[in-house]
Amino acid sequence: MTSRLPLLALRSAAALFAAGSLLVTLADGLDARPTALAFGVLVAVGELIRPGARIGPDPTTSHGTTLHGTQGTTGSGLREAAPLGAAGALSYALLGEHAGQPTHHGVAQVVCVVAAAALLGSVPRLARGQGPVLDHLVRRILAVGFTTVCFQPLYHRGFFDDWSGPAYALLLLALLVLTVLCDAVVAAALAHSATGWPFGPLLRDELRAVPGIGSAVCATGAVMALAVAVVGLWALPVFSVPLLLTQLSLRRYAAVRATYRQTIASLARATEIAGYTPAGHARRVAALGQAVGRDLGLPEAELTVLEYAALMHDIGQLSLVDPVPAGATADLPAAEQRRIALLGGAVVRRTGAGPQVAAVVERQADPYPEQPVAARIVRVVNAYEEKVRDAGPGGPLTALEELRLGTGGAYAPEVVEALARVLGNRGGGGQRPGPGAGGRRAGLSDLGRGWVTHG
Fold it and tell me: How many other CB atoms are there within 10 angstroms of residue 124's CB atom?
């Protein structure tokens, strides 16, 4: 319940802010309607062409739960899916003049116009059921509200009259950078509340995206506000073209990443189709491995490598003349495990999945002090899934205890404990089990309905 409080608080704040702005705008009327319409159209177009999430379960997940991201970016790691809409909204918030004439719109009108345009641009996505839209709207409303509150009241009171030229431009950029940083905190808080993943790594991933697409949004937003102040609304189409092309490139990039992930998932099913491993084994290892990786604080790039390696960790079994019974390699002799891992790495290198993924597959059977973190996770999660596969109600706890007994040489202790935390959270409805054995057993005994499900 505690982890849901930030989510409810942020959503409530955005809803109240938008509703209050709408009431004030209806009471006072819309000032400078052509300007409001122009910026509203720009924001709506940016929302319309942003990449959408897949419809239906992700083929690289277990039970339809996505392995990457929560912002409707198809797991691509794109932190701002609608940069044109973001830049348009922020530039309207920073608009103090139009063609040399002072503007008179206030905080309420800016929030109302941006919220309505963002919602209008999201209608087709809502109609098709393409991913989460509510949290995206929450971020947009809170971000533009923060910028407007910091700028519009002070501007109309003359606080910025002495700022001109480069100093004024730097002021706008500084305000936009602060807005992007606050938006990163909001995005991480929303993701943490929705998924239960650690807040720190989520915030770190958001902040790592700021120098990339975040800097482009800040620069374009500031330039458009300054240009409209001088030449009028004709500046909007001129200065929005570069970001529009960037957004179209992001759409293509997201589509390529989705296709690539589907290709990896299809390769991972080869061992299942050939009868070397049980159905759904690779997907379950990938899903649980991703959760363990997030608990350990792995960045987004390493989580992607972990996902691909977990999906293809058993592909080396295709080179065996005599299949391993039920594909269970965890109990094989160490030399045989390493041989299968090396065979798998050789196959992965031919698929074009990347040398990092191949290295993780190759080293999953090495002694854990010599392994990269992703290889440690794959080894532990694979062993857990194999040990618990045919066990009864007490299987999860028994399998976990077997892994703990093997931390002296086979399994990394920190990974085993991270696995225990993840299993306890999932089994206990999102709450960590208590310190006693009874609490652990109660949480872990429910995993037959959670991670450990044959499919």
Answer: 12
